[in-house]
User: What shape does this take?
Amino acid sequence: MAVKKCVTAVIFLAATTAGAAWAEEPIKPITPPKEINQAKAELGKKLFFDPRLSKSGFISCNSCHNLSIGGSDNLKTSIGHNWQKGPINAPTVLNSSLSFVQFWDGRADSLKAQAGGPIANPGEMALTHALAEGILTSIPGYVTEFKQVFGDNKIDIDRVTDAIAEFEKTLVTPNSRFDKWLLGDVKAVTEQELAGYKLFKDFGCISCHYGESVGGGTFHKMGMVEEYKAKSPAEGRKAVTGKDEDRFMFKVPNLRNVELTYPYFHDGEAETLTEAVDVMGRLQLGKKLSDTENAQIVAFLKSLTGDQPAFTLPMLPPSSDKTPQPKPFEE
Assistant: This one.
């Protein structure tokens, strides 16, 4: 009995210590959003899933940010209107509210600013904001819901993107096994995963991947030690600033749920986590990781998968006779 009490005391002390120590760790546990306008988020959920916001009537936000597979599409680059090949890998929408800017090149400073871009991009949803407003205004169910949420019948792109952003704020993934460890559950992760976390810190990965989202807080150059030979035309921040020194400066991706969001990098060229860790070790840190080290870091990264968003799929309001018809085969 004395031995059992001693063991129990040691486990309790370890858990208490871990729970107190998480505040000192560079990675923080995810906390659920606190202030959500539920009516607006519910409207935003419908808009997120509604393909009528595209010219084809076939593509929705969820097409490239599929919430059943980690908030991305698992393609190197996404498929746009008329099967156009996108120029860049679709980042996950999960935990995107934790990033300081949106898009790989950071051209949008908020979720709301980001939400309007794909709708009007001819290579993505290929509509215009004016046409999107007209389509939604022609649907009685949306007119009613916009009035309930915003107080009047006006439907414009500002309100559309505001609602979509409100829904996207709910798409956080707390309660990963690693979060449980941070909060004091010493049995939540394995020895291999903890060894991987130690390497992740010791090798310097943590200098870019930190905080709640384990990334998403800075821009960084792809190819610090060795040049990265990309197959994508994307040039990162240079496309926004026009400065040569910003070429290949990309927003650091968040690593939450990273085992679900393959392939990796802005061009989607790394098909597996093992490959991604190897490339990042060599190009960013100048380190050739052993198979054991790589496996340990991969194991740690997989412990970052949290609770996925769970909700009832929205029933979209039906079109009216005045609703413009989809044009899936028009350029």
User: Anything to note?
Assistant: Residues 2-30+176-302 form a domain with the Cytochrome Bc1 Complex; Chain D, domain 2 fold (CATH 1.10.760.10). The chain has two domains: 2-30+176-302, 38-169.
